[in-house]
């Protein structure tokens, strides 16, 4: 026992003398703890629910917002989302109801260098007859400007300010009259409502948001007693949380976090299962020889002639399988392959070694010879390739997701990249959406690659650099 | 007499090996047919489509407007049966799967179910040959480049075993754990989205330039990023593998023996190191070229490259089994024939391989 312990210790010592191995181990440990945290903090059904809820449940999030920490690196400060709600006293929203008229005031100070990405107002009301409201907008030091008046729908209603085409046209006309020149382009509602009203507004390159206190007023009239009404103003920013959001306003951190355990378990399970099964099959073939061997050989040639990725694509496209069934299919398609042939060649040599002869002479069973004499001899030499193949399988899952063939429910890194690609993130400049999952994929697989190459140098010292 | 005997033995071996490979191809193609037809489920879908279109055409035909319901159903049913017979769907799927197998193996690839070539043809052979040049242009040339970089780089490194350059290559090799298409995304980000000097994807500008020279230039520009992504991803690891490969061959006992005999180093290298490495290198090259024929599905998707990989992806989207089976059949045949030829050539050339049987 003691020698085994010191053997493990010296192994660890020699492993960690390689700086690359140390880096790899640290990365893998970090990813494993991130995965453990994720699995405990956000149970899988909850993650799937959050990921599949649809846009309605994230209405307070901006669309494709960059992560908040982007502001640390840029001179221009991107806006955070500002939410003002009359139902909570803490925010800058006040509410005054005098019999059948009511007045909400939302005040906020805007201190950012960029325009917000969107403006919406949500209403929550209970009434029986009709409720009429008018919304006014006041820039810092400006006059109140009426945005719209309309009748509310009972229950939940919304005024999508950014989507109000009539308003946009009116605001553009108002601005060009105010500056005394035609605007170079039609401004969006959130641009027109925040822009400094001087010559700079003429071009999108020069226009700037006015900094200072903004005031939005909602005045309303009810035609009954005993009604209730509340409102929420959302000034959507361009940054959100530590990971940003996607086109469906989802917080990307859910998928980033859950991507880790899925990638790790997919990669590690596939790598271990494939390598071990390949080895055992090769050992059985090499040891028994004859018919069993040639059957295995032919079956291996059969799977090698089937193109792997296309077959996998067909199966996952036609049968709409989830990620764990996909894992099983991947394992099934890979157990007979290039590795089986390589290991068989190794076992054919080992079979002739004297210690195996000795085992046969003392009457060891076939099973014992395979599992106690053949497999352990080869194991160390293939551990590096096992560790290295984790990276391949992690990217295999990502590749399937990029082809739109992954598990539709699972929030994985590959799926994120696929979503981003589909939404044209590279064309439209939503780089965070692609870079975050891509970098996590790179870091994770690099961890395994660094460890794998270091292990290779230790276990196969013949090729160690001088 | 001895020669005759040898030729006979060779022929017997070749026939046996060929037969085994053929059986493997048959099995692989049959498996593809089963998967691509979803075990017959595709037939059910086609049948229900036929039924829908037949009922619609009968319902819209003024000639049948006045007929009672039963009469109409009779007409629909007889038209439906006729259509099924026309499509060959009146037989059970398993009978037909063998018919498919037969025509696939005789390279009678038939017509696509839904897809058409850019020229409007539904013949599978035309659809495939239309996409083939794109895949060959990109992936065969990239693979050839990779092959020669790795070959000469590996040979040079094996001479300078342990030098600085060697160490750089060894320490860069973990970069190859990231596949080419993934580097492709980063390259698009840098060169297309940020620097705006190379296109995002596709094979040629739209509209294509009229002038042949401008056309070639445009294709080259579109090839740059996908080719670069593969070179970044695979050149280092392949050089590393080749270096190790040459090192292994140069540390064989017979090489030491030759050196001990005092043979000049050039001769040792040519005759004792390089010559035995030739068979695996040729195998490697042949198999690389064959598999580059299939294109690369993910890289072609990322770069929107109109090759065989994209065709395969689209065929899966359309559930177009004739196209899928057609691509796999050609691939399987090419692979099997290549393996067979290599096997036989080595048996003649390499005295270390002895034939059994």
Features:
heterodimer; A: about 475 residues; alpha+beta; MetI-like fold; Jelly Rolls; 2 domains; 15 helices; about 50% helix; B: about 350 residues; mainly alpha; 13 helices; about 75% helix; about 0% strand
Structural features, described:
The complex is a heterodimer of chains A (466) and B (357). With 466 residues, chain A is of the alpha+beta class. Chain A has helices spanning 2-16, 19-41, 44-52, 165-179, 189-192, 252-288, 290-305, 308-319, 323-334, 338-350, 354-361, 366-402, 413-422, 425-428, 431-459; strands at residues 82-85, 93-98, 101-110, 118-126, 131-138, 145-151, 155-159, 212-222, 228-236. Chain A folds into 2 domains: 2-52 and 251-463, MetI-like fold (Orthogonal Bundle), CATH 1.10.3720; 77-236, Jelly Rolls (Sandwich), CATH 2.60.120. Chain A has a 5-stranded antiparallel beta sheet, with no helix packed on it. A 4-stranded antiparallel beta sheet of chain A has the order 1-9-4-7, with no helix packed on it. By secondary structure, chain B is mainly alpha-helical. Chain B has a domain at 131-308: MetI-like fold (Orthogonal Bundle), CATH 1.10.3720. Chain B contains 13 helices and no strands. In chain B, helix 2 packs across helix 3 and helix 5 packs across helix 8 (212-250). Chain B is flat, with a radius of gyration of 28 Å. The model of chain B has no long low-confidence stretch (mean pLDDT 86). Chains A and B meet through helix 7, helix 8, helix 12 and helix 15 of A and helix 1, helix 6, helix 7, helix 8 and helix 11 of B.
